[in-house]
Amino acid sequence: VQLVESGGELVQPGGSLRLSCAASGFTFSNFDMRWYRQAPGKERELVAFISSSGYTTYYANFMKGRCTISRDNAKSTVYLQMNSLKPEDTAVYSCNARTTFDDYWGQGTQVTVSS
Asked: What is the C-alpha to C-alpha distance for residues 65 and 77, in angstroms, rounded to an integer?
């Protein structure tokens, strides 16, 4: 089982990034997917959720209107498009695959928002 995130980088305030999380080793289409983030010295927090079918999404209040979660089950990949980025969005972003019985995590990708 692998979840490999990519797309994190240094970006200026107001900029955009699209994170990707490529899954392998399990039936991706059966799993709900989540993006979490953790900033230094802070607890991990949920950023966005998408159901296994892709029909249901959820966004944390701090990201509403600024990001979109999507998935391509044919490519076993989940995406997080983030816009209007702020310095406080700086964190390691990780994807999570979950069912009732299984819970998988990626290693994370660093997003730094700074001028």
From this structure: 22
- Amino acid of residue 114: S
For residue 20, the SS3 value is: strand
- The CA distance from 29 to 21, in Å, is 14
User: Is residue 36 classed as helix, strand or coil in its secondary structure?
Assistant: strand
Return contacts of 64-69, CB within 8 angstroms, 24+ apart.
69/33, 69/35
Cα angle, residue 13 at apex, residues 9 and 18 outer, rounded to 5°: 40
23-35 pLDDT, tens per residue?
A: 999 999 999 999 9
Mean pLDDT throughout 3-14?
98
22: its two tokens: 């490529």
- Length of the chain, please? 115
Specify the 3-state DSSP secondary structure of 30: helix
Residue 86 has pLDDT above 90, yes or no: yes
| CA-to-CA separations, 90 to 30, 39, 54, 64, 69, in angstroms, rounded | 30, 6, 27, 16, 18
